[in-house]
Design goal:
With 275 residues, the protein is α/β, with parallel strands linked by helices. The protein has one domain: P-loop containing nucleotide triphosphate hydrolases (Rossmann fold). Helices cover 43% and strands 15% of the residues. It has twelve helices and eight strands. An eight-stranded mixed β-sheet has the order 3-4-2-5-1-6-7-8, sandwiched between helices.
Length: 275
């Protein structure tokens, strides 16, 4: 991002954190559970599609919304939000390395009002992310929590990686995302057992968002019998995938939106904005 662009983004985000502009009105809107994590439990889920659409709906409710892409090896949310990716060593990795970096200058401003993205650069080397620990991740999430009304985190399902467990540990609310796959329940329990064994609280990850449903004869009761709550059931919609390939928000840009997709996304947005 050039100097002019950084100044513009910094100016926009400074309005969010300015005490003079926050005032009592914004403080009254502050959510109790403002850091929300999304963790895939199997193949054929699309967190980026879910989070980009959900983030847009939350921003339209007047919430200053930050989306964080913690898939440090393969970031893709910048494509779904149609923003120019960070240059190498800019963005997420820069704020992880030093608490002296102004996080506002590393945010990507989307075309949508009150919707921002903190993302790794796709040009960063994988090995550059091996040395970060829980403290680095906690500091960044804490800073975002104090800057934005709500933070949505795309968490990689890679338990040995600090970005997985570190994000789980610092979320207020967590959702597993799942599709109609036989291994879903086992995968969720295995990850939670591992997280619990290293001292990570797992009580917040008890809700499941079912995605890309094809109407298969799937036994959803298995998920519920294992103690999970199904928070939403989102159907597979071909046009939603097509819109994401073009960097457009399906719930905003498609005049013929699938009513079930719309209903479930709005239900999620309403629940998160009222916490």
């Amino acid at each position: 991002m050039d100097l002019k662009g950084k100044k513009r983004v910094s100016s926009m985000i400074s309005k969010i954190s300015s005490k003079e502009l926050i005032g009592s009105e914004l403080q009254e809107n502050k959510l109790i559970y403002s850091v929300v994590g999304f963790l895939p439990s199997c193949d054929f889920v699309d967190n980026a599609l879910l989070i980009s659409n959900l983030g847009y709906l939350l921003s339209q409710k007047g919430l200053n919304t930050c989306i964080v892409d913690l898939k440090v090896f393969y970031p893709n949310l910048y494509q779904f939000l149609d923003v120019k990716p960070n240059k190498k060593s800019d963005g997420l990795i820069k704020v992880l390395k030093s608490d002296k970096v102004d996080i506002r200058e590393e945010m990507l401003h989307t075309r949508y009002e009150r919707l921002y993205l903190l993302s790794p650069s796709p040009h960063d080397l994988m090995e550059e992310y091996y040395d970060f620990d829980f403290e680095n991740i906690e500091r960044v999430i804490s800073t975002l929590k104090n800057t934005f009304d709500i933070v949505l985190i795309d968490i990689p399902n890679n338990p040995p990686l600090e970005f997985c467990l570190g994000a789980m540990n610092n979320c207020h609310v967590g959702f597993f995302t799942a599709s109609e796959r036989i291994e879903v329940s086992g995968n969720m329990m295995k990850l939670l057992d591992y997280a619990n064994s290293v001292g990570i609280s797992t009580a917040k990850f008890t809700s499941v968002i079912l995605m890309n449903l094809l109407g298969l004869d799937y036994d959803y009761k298995v998920i519920e019998e294992m103690g999970f709550n199904i928070a939403a059931k989102i159907p597979f919609v071909k046009s939603a995938i097509t819109y994401s390939l073009e960097g457009r928000i399906y719930v905003k840009d498609n005049p013929l939106i699938n009513k079930y997709f719309k209903r479930e996304l709005h239900k999620l947005a309403d629940n998160l904005s009222e916490q």
